Amino acid sequence: MRCFMQLCCASAVLAAISAPVFAGDITTEWASVKPPPVPELAPVTVDPKTTALLVLDFMKDNCGQRPLCLATIPNVKKLLEPS
Question: What DSSP element (H or E) covers 63?
Answer without folding.
Answer: none
